[in-house]
Each structure stands twice: as C-alpha cells, then as structure tokens.
C-alpha cells in the first residue's frame, strides 16, 4: 500500500493526514480531525518496515487505551471549565474520536487484507 492510498483511505474516513519520514525507515502518520463540538483532535501512528499492519496495530492500541471519561477530565481541567455539561460534551467527543479511529483501522486493515494496493518502495530497495 502506498502512502497516497493510506492518505486517501484516511480522508474518506474524515481525517486529515500528514507524514513525517524518519531515518530508520519508519514513517509517522499524524491523523487530525475536529470533534463534533468543533475542537481539534489528533493522534500519531508509526509505520515500520513498510507494513500497513504496524499502523493498524498502533491505531488499535490507541483506541484500546483511550478512556473517554479519563481523557475528558484531563481535557476540561486544562481548559478550566469543569462544569458537568462541559464534561459530558468532552466524554461524547472522546468517544466519537475513538469510534472514528477504530473505523479508520478497520478500513486500512480491510484494504491491506484484500491486497488492493502495493507498497511503494523506492527503486533502490527493489535490488
């Protein structure tokens, strides 16, 4: 799967993506979107060894670790507004982002399983 295919799938799922290359043949994919209440949200997944499964594993790990209630508390404490209604909106936002991240992992996994795309290796890696 080439990077543009990953970006296309993410965009179709409502995410914006930026990619940063690392010197150890890994790539950082930063996924961003706005919550239902209009707040910015982002997370990063690393692709190692050109394997799409590494991104999927990282997204699933992120989804499993995301506790909407805990993160909502941290989020609103940083904002200074700890009203019950603000807390409930923050929990809804976090739960929504967890769902969107899960759906992104499913879409990427499905595309990788179906081998619809080929990994775009540079010419010097083909030798």
Give a verbal description of the structure.
The chain is α+β, with helices and mostly antiparallel strands. Helix content is 52%, strand content 19%. It has helices at residues 3-12, 52-65, 68-79, 84-113, and strands at residues 16-21, 26-34, 40-48. The protein has a three-stranded antiparallel β-sheet with strand order 1-2-3, with helices on one face. A hairpin with a 5-residue loop joins strand 2 and strand 3. The model is unreliable at 116-127 (pLDDT under 50).
Summary?
The protein is an alpha+beta fold and 127 residues long. The protein has four helices and three strands; from the N terminus they run αβββααα. It has one domain.
Q: What's the number of extended β-strand segments?
A: 3
Helix content: 40-55%
Taking the sheet with the most strands, its summary is: 3 strands, antiparallel
What count of domains describes the coordinates? 1
Unreliably modeled segments: 116-127
Topology as a string of helices (H) and strands (E): HEEEHHH
Q: Give average pLDDT, whole number.
A: 84
What Rg do the Cα atoms give? 17 Å
Task: Record the SSE blueprint.
Blueprint: H1 3-12, E1 16-21, E2 26-34, E3 40-48, H2 52-65, H3 68-79, H4 84-113
Antiparallel strand pairs: 1-2, 2-3
List the keywords.
disordered C terminus; 127 residues; three-stranded antiparallel β-sheet; 4 helices; single chain
């Amino acid at each position: 799967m080439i990077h543009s295919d990953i970006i296309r799938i993410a965009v179709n799922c409502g995410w914006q993506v930026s990619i940063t290359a690392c010197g150890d043949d890994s790539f950082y994919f930063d996924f961003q979107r706005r919550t239902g209440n209009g707040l910015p949200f982002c997370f990063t997944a690393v692709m190692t060894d050109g394997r799409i499964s590494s991104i999927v594993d990282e997204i699933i790990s992120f989804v499993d670790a995301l506790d909407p209630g805990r993160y909502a508390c941290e989020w609103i404490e940083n904002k200074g507004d700890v009203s019950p209604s603000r807390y409930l909106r923050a929990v809804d936002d976090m739960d929504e982002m967890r769902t969107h991240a899960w759906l992104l992992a499913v879409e990427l996994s499905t595309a990788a399983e179906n081998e619809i795309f080929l990994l775009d290796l540079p010419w010097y890696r083909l030798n």
